Every structure is written in structure tokens, then in C-alpha cells.
Amino acid sequence: MTVLRECKERLEQMQRDEERVTAMANKAKDLISLGQGDEEQVEADVDVFLQKWETVMNKITELETEVSNRQPERPARFLEAVEALRTWVAELHGALLGEPFVVRTAADMEAQLDKYKELQTEMESQQASRDFVNSSGQELVAAGDAQLMDQLDELNQRWGAAAALLADRMAKLEQAIFDSYQYQTEGEGVETWLREVEELLAEPVAEGDAPALTAQLEQSDVSVEQAGAG
């Protein structure tokens, strides 16, 4: 844990406990006013404690200010990379959220999938910039720039959310395209079968010609099986 972060946590803890300290001091004053115990000793103990509390808080505040002033300067190249990456990720995430998944024609969904593949390629090309930001950022954090850690975490969380959403959209589109073509193929098979059956039924059969009727029914069964297999 860096010194700056530890100072902040200690100050926050003391600020949370300040109300309890005040309540304790007031309790001591009540005891003094009631004349219970050694009034002078109680009052002296309370004063000493409050002085120590204030001294510790002032020292931590001074240390926090000193460490903050000594934080390493963030290089311009690093700042530019962070801003560019943050903007790109925000735009990608916003574009995905603004274009919800909808089942359309296979052609339209293929066009959308191609666009998402381009975004995925672009995201892969941005990985080098992300690696630079994270590695440089960790060096700055280790040198004392504690506040940068939260910014890096937020940026990486946004990146992860955008990557997950993009992968989800691509998977849904691929499945929908597959289903669309499968439905189209099955529909064409059924239409072909119906035409064949209609042709068979249109052929005249002499009344009482049992072998011809049997052959016609068998051919119809074969057509049904073929359509089902298609």
C-alpha cells in the first residue's frame, strides 16, 4: 500500500470516529459536572487525549499534502494515450448499446456481422495501446501516484464490458444467420416435396390397378423421407 493511500484511509477512519471521540469528551464533561470521581484528573485526561487526537490528525494531513506534492508527473505521452483509449472504448460501448440485436434478413445480419468483425480487429489493434497504458500506469502507481490506480481500474472495466458485449453480439448474429439459412433450406425442401407429390397425384391411375397404386404410394413415401432429411 502506498503512503498516500494509507494516509487517506487513516484520515477517513479518524473522520468516521470523530463523532465517537466528541461523544466521549461530552460524557467526561457530564461526569465532571456531576462531581463524580477525580474531576481534575478526568478533565486533564480528556484534554490530553483530545490534543493527541488533533495532533495525529494534523500530522497525517500534512503528510498527505507532502506526499501528494511529491507525486510523479504523468508524462504527456501517457496522458494522451489514456485519453485516446478512454474515448475509443466509450464510443465503442456507446455504439453497441445504441444498436440492439434484432433478427433481420440473412443478408442484413451478415453485413452487420462484418462490421462487428471490423470492430473486433480494431479492438485487437488497440490492445498495444492498452498494454502501454497499464504498464506505464503501474510504474507511476508504484512511484506514488495512488490516485491513478482507480482510473486504470475503471478504464479496464470499461474495456472488458465493451469486449464482452461485442463478443455476445457476434455470437447472436452468427446463430441467427445459421438459423435463417437452415429455415430457408428446409422451406425449399418442403416446397420441392409438395410439387413432387402434386405431380404424382396428378398422374391418372386405372381403377383397380393395385400395383400402380402401391408404386405411387411408395414413391410418395420416398419423397416425404427426402424432404424430412433435407
What does this structure look like?
It contains 6 helices and no strands. By secondary structure, it is an all-alpha fold. Helix 3 (76-97) runs antiparallel to helix 4, helix 3 (76-97) packs parallel to helix 5 and helix 5 packs antiparallel against helix 6 (210-229). The longest helix is centred in the last third of the chain and has 56 residues, at 147-202.
Task: Name the features.
230 residues, 86% helix, mainly alpha, single chain, Methane Monooxygenase Hydroxylase, Chain G, domain 1, 3 domains
CATH class of the largest domain: Mainly Alpha
SSE succession: HHHHHH
Overall 3D shape: elongated
Tally of DSSP helical segments: 6
Rg computed from alpha carbons, rounded to a whole number of angstroms: 38 Å
The end-to-end distance, rounded to whole angstroms, is 65 Å
Fraction of residues in helix: over 70%
Largest sheet: none
Query: How many distinct domains?
Result: 3
CATH architecture of the largest domain: Up-down Bundle
At the fold tier of CATH, the topology name of the largest domain is Methane Monooxygenase Hydroxylase, Chain G, domain 1
Mean pLDDT: 77
Task: Put the structure in a nutshell.
With 230 residues, the protein is mainly α. It has 6 helices and no strands.
List the helices and strands and how they pair.
Blueprint: H1 3-33, H2 39-69, H3 76-97, H4 106-142, H5 147-202, H6 210-229
Helix pairs in contact: 1-2, 3-4, 3-5, 4-5, 5-6
